Fold 4-coumarate-CoA ligase.
Amino acid sequence: MAKINSTSSNIDPRSGFCSANSTFYSKRPQIPLPSNQSLDVTTFISSRAHHGHLAFIEASTGRSLTFADLWRAVDAVSASLSADFGIRKGHVILLLTPNSIYFPIVCLAVLSLGAVITTTNPLNTTREIAKQIADSKPVLAFTIHQLLPKLADSNLPIVLLDDPDLNDRSSGKLRIVSSIEEMMKREPSQSRVKERVNQDDTATLLYSSGTTGTSKGVVSSHGNLIAMVQTVVNRFKLENGKQTFICTVPMFHIYGLVAFATGLIASGSTVVILSKFEMEEMLMAIQKFSATYLPLVPPILVALVNYAESIKKKYDLSSLHTVLSGGAPLSKEVIEGFSEKYPKVGVLQGYGLTESTGIGASTDSLEESRKYGTAGLLSPSMEAKIVDPESGAALPVNRTGELWLRGPSIMKGYFSNEEATASTLDSQGWLRTGDLCYIDEDGFIFVVDRLKELIKYKGYQVPPAELEALLLTHPEIDDAAVIPFPDKEAGQVPMAYVVRKKGSAITENQVMDFVAKQVAPYKRVRRVAFVATVPKNPSGKILRKDLIKLAVSKI
């Protein structure tokens, strides 16, 4: 068993629970963190010794970057940002693009200057992106030609990631000022401004639905990202490099950005980038590049089990030794089904939030994953409390309450939102996760339910409050409530209970089409039921649990 990170005699070595302060301590070995506070995450990653050669490969094109290529490109782009565009510490840069080989170059260059990266989902609508721009106030945007229409009204200067022909750089309302290829040709300047960046300085501003169901900018520091990088590298014992990861996860997401776009290269590992998830492309990439690690969400794992025979006939997956699942705990049937079909491949799981820089708990072996339904043991250097939502009392082993987390990867707060920060982070640095959990006698965390009202669709978080507010703008809808409806493939889908206005004959399809035109595809309402009233408590809060019971009773 790993050492517990405390010397207190009140700590139970089996569960990690301290009876003196009702805190659970991680059973994992503590991760070493740099003591130098004047350190940005790019410098931290680039200064780590390793024996890796290839940093990134783009699966669709076969284009690759050696580590030498990568750091040359990062240096050139950061020089261009500073000298040509006046980017300084604290400036926000928007990155709107699918996964690509340029994503890590831009991120590492921006972070090296102490500027701040804000990413957004390419599937988001123009309206959703405009809302994020209005909140985060970026001074420059990186995007691809196909997504230019989504920035047409932003008036932001734009750098293109995919089109070196800039003849149309002044067309329409768009202000196309350069291309990534142009910037990568820039010679580093000896006279460029290099401001001191501290670990506490803001590095990323990623938008999350948080615990209340409305989108907020999560402020993560360089220190948060460094803690995440160290945790990832130590978790997979990657110090010697020579591992190949398939990047199926979106790089705009905290886990994709910190682990796959930046963190794994600290170990000398190779990351094979998929521009978007397609099962055939993923399987082909595993075979072609002899991948050893595959991150995925539970529905993909289920598909690998269900179609194992045809997959193994068509593809050589013999190089694969580990799959990494996140988004929801795996059942016994799925874990054992996968182990039976792919006996040489281990199954690891993870739990984390944007607010915890993607870190919280993990299973680090198949044996640990066989604690069926668990989210894993607390990540290194992480502490937890299980708190009764009613009384606020911290609870012991095997008691269910809200999971609170504290550690070096916990966010600084929500951007320009003191009220939301105060309701999520307390004065001692505890993050209220909004998840109802218990920790068993062996220190394993089990997620029982959500206090926060989020729907998990294929790993994406869908806030019901956002969809309800949208539905209420329809002239024929009097009231609405949105709940998660169980779905074998997606995990959950958004279902709307709608109260029609008097005299209205609006149909299910009309409701779904109304929402679909205004939100990203993963947020679309997939089922609709009409009711006379939406059940609410005396204070007007929607009784979602009653609607969930009603929906499930009709399956």
Observations:
- The two ends are 44 Å apart (CA to CA).
- The chain has a mean pLDDT of 90.
- The longest strand covers residues 477-487.
- Residues 22 and 99 are 42 Å apart (CA to CA).
